[in-house]
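Hello,

I think I submitted the pyridoxal-5'-phosphate job twice by accident. Can you confirm which output corresponds to this input? Input:
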Amino acid sequence: MQPKQSIVSLPVYQPGKPIEEVKRELGLNDVIKLASNENPFGCSEQAKAAILKEFENISIYPDSFSTELAAAVAEHLGIERNQLIFGAGSDEVILMLVRAFLTPGDETIMANETFPQYRHNAVIEGATCIEVPLKDGTHDLPAMLARITDRTKIVWVCNPNNPTGTIIRHEELDAFIRQVPSNVIVALDEAYIEYVTDGAFPDSLAFMREFKNVILLRTFSKAYGLASLRIGYGAGHADLIRMVNQVREPFNTTRMAQAAAVASLADVEFLNSCVTRNAEGKAYMCKEFDRMGLQYYEAHGNFIMVDVKLPSGQAFDGLLRRGVIARANWKHYPTYIRITIGSQEQNEAFIAALESVLTEAAVLG
Ligand SMILES: *Cc1c(COP(=O)(O)O)cnc(C)c1O
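Support: Only one job matched these inputs. Its output is below.
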């Protein structure tokens, strides 16, 4: 068997370690997973009720156009329904966008480090990835702009950036978007936007309205707590959305995901409480990192990238033995781990485990 050349040396995605696997392998009873930026507070009770209600219809294909959900999101954002496309997570929207636009010979520009799925999908299509190093953990937009050529099709801006958690602010993004040629798509991945409290965060909807080449990527997996249902969306000009829709599988999102997303949007109280508790958890973690003399990037999502002054694999293993699953092994950040902000109890357990690891390794006195 001979697969397409582009995938010959492509790795299979390595997700954060599952809790059950760690329990089994290390014989631990209590394991906390702070590796995948999942919502530690679950999801809305109204979403659960909506899922149960859809059980009745499990044998019926879902609405291909997610009509009800599209109406709810359109109203939420103040846009039209034909400006939205839904996917099995925003991961699938990334996949569809790449599938619709990139072919061998095309170029696509992204930061390094950033969310790996831009690169992953572009590689599969045989496109050339131009990776521009982050500057102080943040997208270097002028450097990215300088790399645009006649071949460039898509530029990715992950805001807040995963894994660093940093943001690009409105003015910087404004200056950037105005200089990007109108035939180049600017994909603004805002998977963590609900958590952002910085007043200078971009008004991306305004950019989307003004520029036909801007697409926003959002998800119900993080702040809304629906990661396992796989539901996210892209928002952009109707012409752009129609093109992405052309490569969409007919039934790519489920009834339960659509119903749960509608209910989640309506449950503002649950969302707000998650955002508040996340901010409290973030303040606690930062205070503890300060106490231990650890540097970290300004975190705007529900995770923090912290320099533990140890090879990150060693820190990861040490934490794992103490029942905490973190995320490690970024090429350009050999001593950093990325940790999801959990519940207060999880955060305290993580800090205790980290302190123990760093004391054992003589990083802390
Ligand atoms: C989690 C995440 C996504 C996608 O999550 P889905 O579950 O596929 O919606 C997209 N972009 C970034 C930066 C993420 O961290």
